[in-house]
Write a structure and sequence with these properties.
Blueprint lengths: L2 H27 L7 H21 L11 E4 L2 E6 L8 H11 L6 E7 L5 E6 H7 L14 E7 L9 H23 L20 E3 L2 E4 L4 E4 L2 E4 L2 H12 L4 E3 H9 L7 H15 L5 E6 L3 E6 L1
Antiparallel strand pairs: 1-2, 2-5, 3-4, 3-5, 6-7, 7-8, 8-9, 10-12, 11-12
């Protein structure tokens, strides 16, 4: 696998890890009830609408509807100063909430204004499943009631350990792939062509070229090129065995074994680089023996 492929794999793994961890976070966040000024405004309008129709059904279309009171993060109530038909309350209140796009679960309590004692009440789910609220058919004997609505926070879904574990493993794999990509030799930028009249005296000659292993310099027809450590080591191995078939396994162990991990694709990439550097020397070529290895042929 070449350097680009390794980096691409690392990016894909990292994105997968982020996606899994994001799904877990979003799932937990979605359990929170709707909040904020806009939600409170919609609840206010829905309760005033409900109070209006309750009083109108009782024959009162002139009484002033008092302000809705917001007594807590999830608690609202409105005061109704005359009896009303409790049986009509569940459907009417739910219709008002739907008009204002309120879909959270809630509890309803009808409290006596004088002492705050609970007279009647129900949970939205009771009405949703049964299409009627408990204690229906009972008359309200008093003259003033507080209609209180308490929104019930949704339970957070259970954590999904496999999402966290999978996300963390993918993150570790992505980091490992990225680190491995950093170890791959990066071909240096080719230095400006420099004419060298006298190559280094200790350079090893082959064909019309020579290799200065100590300084990692290659001279092709007098033109100097800089090599990476692996390129110089691999080329020196070829020069030391001219016109001999060198097997892939031998080349890999000789050049890359000190890294502890041998990647076969690296050999092909580096041979390709050396061929490009040597193409100015017609007396030298690196021949491929398919399925076996390579041979440096010098004329």
């Amino acid at each position: 696998m070449n350097q680009t492929s390794i980096k691409t794999s690392a990016i894909i793994l990292a994105l997968a890890a982020v996606s899994l961890l994001s799904v877990q976070w979003v799932t937990r966040q979605q359990a929170a009830p709707v909040a904020g000024p806009r939600f409170a405004e919609k609840v206010n309008l829905a309760l005033r609408r409900t109070a209006h129709y309750l009083l109108a059904a009782a024959g009162d279309t002139t009484s002033r509807i008092p302000p809705v009171q917001h007594t807590g993060d999830s608690v609202w109530f409105i005061r109704l100063e005359r009896p009303f038909n409790y049986d009509t309350l569940p459907a009417l209140l739910q219709a008002s909430f739907e008009v204002h796009d309120i879909r959270d679960n809630y509890d309803v309590a009808v409290l006596d204004c004088s002492d705050g004692e609970l007279q009647l009440g129900y949970n939205f789910l009771d009405f949703l499943h049964q299409q009627e609220a408990p204690c229906g058919g009972r008359a309200l004997a008093g003259s003033c009631y507080n209609l209180r609505v308490t929104f019930v926070p949704a339970k957070a879904p259970p954590a999904q350990p496999w999402l966290w574990i999978s996300g963390c493993l993918l993150a570790v794999m992505a980091f490992g792939s990225w680190r491995w990509a950093q170890r791959e030799d990066v071909q240096p930028a080719v230095l400006p062509v420099t004419e060298v009249a006298n190559p280094h005296a200790n350079a090893q000659r082959f064909g019309n070229s020579s290799l200065d292993l100590a300084n990692q310099l290659l001279f092709v027809n007098g033109v100097q090129q800089s090599l990476t450590y692996r390129e110089a080591k691999l080329l020196h191995l070829f020069i030391s065995h001219p016109n001999q078939l060198l097997e892939r396994e031998f080349l890999l162990k000789s050049v890359w074994e000190d890294e502890g991990i041998i990647v076969g694709r690296s050999l092909d990439v580096f041979v390709s680089r050396l061929r490009k550097l040597l193409r100015g020397d017609e007396g030298v070529q690196i021949a491929t023996v398919h399925g076996v290895g390579y041979r440096l042929e010098c004329v």
